[in-house]
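anyone seen this seq b4? input:
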Amino acid sequence: MVHAGCFLHGLWGDSPRLKQKVYADVRAALRRPLRPEPVEVFCFGEENRRFLLAQGIRPIFYLGNEPPPGNLWLAKLLIIQEALRRHRQVVWLDWDCRLLSSLPREFWRTLSSGAPLRSSLRQYRRIQCPWRTEHRRKLPGGAMIYCRSLQVATELVELALANPQWSDEQVIARWWDLNHGEFDLTAWREGGWELDCYLVRGQIWTPRQALFTPR
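predicted toks r here
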């Protein structure tokens, strides 16, 4: 069944250091008095599934064994792809993304008025997009991602599989460039690709309405 819109969380990986951080983020998210709804939780790995169950999280969409090795962030794109088989539009949220206030009634309609894939553009200190001649340190952030196109999600997964050295943010940046040419700030902003509800350090534009922020 396809629904109007849904938030997504996910859990994957078996690195003890990574688990310590993400498991703490999960527990902190569950303690917050204000949480986005509806939300679905996806999971790779049996140990991660057992952890989520122990936190009282149900249902859990179990996606089996870990995604291909060497591509830590592929799992996020696979989750977005899978969720879009049931929902018209989804918003991925890292566990440490915090909802600042109640969602406006027009939240999903507002998101759908822009591009089929939306994120908050950020400036990094180091080069992130070596294939570009300009804007090589600018990337769409991966902590909060809006998508309403299964085709786009599938293309992102394919690009990630072909480039396991890239983060999900680099994959999105490269996908945009391949489909729109040399990156242009005006084209990004006026084309509706900017996610105007996420407040984070280093972003190019201050959001019109800050609804989410890390921690």
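The helical segments are 16-31, 46-54, 74-83, 107-112, 150-162, 168-180, 185-190. The two ends are 33 Å apart (CA to CA). kinda curious what u guys think
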